Amino acid sequence: MLVEGRRDRMALEQLGFTGPIEVLNRGWPVDDVLVHMLETYGRKSTVDSGPSIVVLMDWDRTGGRLQNTIRRNLESLDVRFDERLRSTLMRCLKPETRVVEGLSGLIEALGPLVDMYDDALVNHPRAEKETHLP
User: Fold this and answer.
1) In the 8-state DSSP scheme, what is residue 28?
2) pTM for the predicted model, two decimal places
């Protein structure tokens, strides 16, 4: 997963997200971060052969610009990626928060939903094929 900053990563970890969470704002150009991710995680997820990169920028103006830049760069490299998590959060949480780090303030409300989603995936007969997080 690719997020904007360190606090975004910490918020997702507090919610119980596991797996690698890479930070875009590390002093590198966007292209270098994307190349690093491709070299590290490849073009396909080893779990379900889906996209290896989940892009989760904030749903404010800056996050939208970054999301568009990342989309263009990955599409130019013919790399599939997943934007569904950002799209869902943007629709559901826009009044409450416009940034990923704001999710940490919603842990009590979102925690049970994350657990419910995880349980549904574990108990689903095709869970391995439908998991889209790297």
Assistant:
1) S
2) 0.73
